[in-house]
Amino acid sequence: MTDMVEIQNLAKRYESGFEALKGVSLNIREGEILALLGPNGAGKTTLISTVCGITLPTDGTIKVGGFDTITQYRQARSLIGLVPQEIHLEPFETVWNAVNYSRGLFGKKRNTKLVEDILRKLSLWDKKDSRSMELSGGMKRRVLIAKALAHEPRVLFLDEPTAGVDVELRRDMWKVVEDLRAQGVTIILTTHYIEEAEAIADRIGVINKGQILLVEETGALMKRLGKKTLRIELHDAVAAIPEALASYGLTLEDAGQTIVYDYDTNAERTGIVRLMADLAEAGLVLRDIQTKQNSLEDIFVDLVHKQQEGAA
Questions:
Q1: Where is the ABC transporter domain positioned along the sequence (predicted)?
Q2: 256 lies in a domain?
Q3: Distances (CA, A) of 107 to 21, 74, 99, 144
Q4: Same domain, 9 and 152
């Protein structure tokens, strides 16, 4: 598969000395959805802004569709659509004019059918003659998306596109994303809704403190790093884990009423059968057992925590 976005050794340093990006290298394939996860201040928006040409890199190179974003910025920028976090719209402009104007900025000929189709998909058609100042926050977010799609980009950046919006917009947004992927558009999104990334992304990237910690296929990542948790509710609470069970690394919760056992689903043996026998041997009576698969959020938090421990 062809790489649509190629980022090599990208760095962004400010006059204060702060490094927002530290040697980031990342290739993004044509037609894939890449979810970029990271805590606030991790460098997600800086990375997107640098690829889109909003801010200039200190070091490194970026190519979009084979075009260098510095030496061939017009060609590269024409391939990119961006939906930013912040909502900035001309308050007195109508939705129809705003979207058509955005298309014109890229030298595209007027295409009323295309614009109408975009507005209808985003449930904006009945608002086409409304001024931006008359729209709700959710509707303004839809206009930003429409503007980003107006010039038919081949790479679409979505920076927290569903933050603070209603369920209907989130549903419409992901319908549009799926349609664009079917057309071969490359999509890079940042989101705080980790369940969304897990559900729709082909690959997951984790960034923190300006560094890429991991980029991996979503399914493979869940399989490799995913763990299961066995929660064992006891008939009677205990004050401490019996000494005979120390080797299992068990923890107590719910005031000693629940024993928690983490195990690797990919291991040859999970140890559950032996644990059950040893619990009985220790005289513990079980009331209920539940299992829980680690989510992408659990994996993400663990990765960030390990990086912070390493830097300490």
A1: 5-234
A2: yes
A3: 32, 11, 13, 19
A4: yes
